[in-house]
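Standup notes
- HV: blocked on the assembly model, inputs below
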Amino acid sequence: MSDVAGIDAALSSARPQVVGALLRYFRDLDVAEEAFQEACLRALKNWPLNGPPRDPVAWLIFVGRNCALDEARRRRKQTALPPDDLISDLEDTEGALAGGLDDAHYRDDVLRLMFICCHPGLPATQQIAVALRIVSGLTVKEIARAFLVSESAMEQRITRAKRAIAAADVPFEAPGAPERAHRLAAVAAMIYLVFNEGYSASGGDSHVRVSLCDEAIRLVRLLLRLFPAEPEIMGLAALLLLQHARTPARLDTNQDIVLLEDQDRGRWNREMIDEGLVLVEKALRHWRPGPYQVQAAIAAVHAQAMRAQETDWEEIDRLYAVLERLQPSPVVTLNRAVAVEKIRGPAAALAMIEPLAGRLSGYFHFHGVKGAWLYALGREDEGRAAFDRAIALANTPAQAAHIRQHLDRLVAPGGLSRADSDARGSAGTTGRT
Amino acid sequence: MRYVIFCYHCEATVAAWAPEQEAAVLEQRAVVRDRLSARGKLGPVVRLMPTTTATTVRGGAEPLVLDGPFAETKEQLLGFYVVDCATLEEAIDTGRQLVGQSGAMEVRPIRSFSPGAIG
């Protein structure tokens, strides 16, 4: 850790614990962030000369706290300090001197820091942006690039979100068990949002996108180190790893999405898959199934099939049945129908999604799979109508292209050249239903 | 005499390394590895999965299985086994059979493994 790159890595990995602890002392996010910045500057000056401290987190908290106190004393006339008994809490630094501090000590601090980003009044995109700024320490510029907006627009969004957070007044006392569980669930959902932001969109800077996925994995690992016995956190970690493992095979040379069944599985990241599989097993030992665990188990079934044809669709059907019970939703049933189609054919799958038509009328995947199954049954006119509907509902050009590519492939091998050209022809006529 | 050399570092920091930095560290170590290997002096080289994948089996009349790595500082590392198991359950069960009345066994999957040449 003698070089600058090593120090940078140490500082960024210490950030959640340090900012979390400083937030507990000063009860003000801006003060905590500034104190962390100042401590980092001192670390960059100090550590190369004197060697890194044994416990960088405790060092940074100690130095950051003193910096903020100095600053507050300078401005004493303008700024009211929190009561002395709060900020004179030396527990962390004394513990560090005794050499007895571990991750568990900071777990409620880190959880609180993550939890304040999950303010229910903040829309999902703002939760993600704020988490990336506050917890991960990404710069506004980096976050703006990930969201394809200008730096000043992102700056405004984050400032607004921080104001909402400050007004929310999350309590600083160590939470009781029910509150802790509530916070964990909210934070897990936020981490999944960060991951999906990186995973789902194909536009923009793919480098930045991938780093959002990496960041989400870093956060969920941190959470799991702090809460090692939570099966749903294991499940979430496994789910993210198993999905991210496919990243090298997900886009073709034109940056178009490659469907799961067409991906070159040799390019999947085996290390991530192995880690994900272990975490699924670890989680399932608890016999406390939850939605992340079941979704991870489904991803694990895919990961274990070396070729798409070897996929155990019966197992996937069973797992989706469990997910339907845990978290009933028409989208889950739609996904289950995809497995059912593989096992019992398109007629059974169509019958299964028929009751969903009302609730999923605006969901493009619904019309995409419906069109494919109608074609498979020779009901081409109805199939084409469903395809057109799917394309009209696509949210982005990439999504539309993805659907069209999917449809082209479905209609091409059966000698349905008329339908094929029509499906292509409908590409430019979004809005036609 | 055979020696085991254990690698310690802050896991989160290593995970935050840029790819070039990780490559630089591995390259420096590869030089040492190759030198030992050429003389037939290198045994197994193991990289472990993150501690989040670890499970600990505590010894006792009824051994206790706990999530997470071995975290006590009052006990010392005294030895290790490398076993090939089909499932985590099988590995934990092996740990349970080994642990006995006291002490603990941390069961941690291996990320990469090269068997080496010394027998």
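- HV (later): unblocked. Chain A touches chain B at residues 1, 5-6, 8-10, 12-14, 56, 100, 102, 218, 221-222, 224-225, 228-229, 234, 237, 271, 274-275, 278-279, 281-282, 285 (CB under 8 Å). The two ends of chain A are 61 Å apart (CA to CA).
- Next: hand off to the docking folks.
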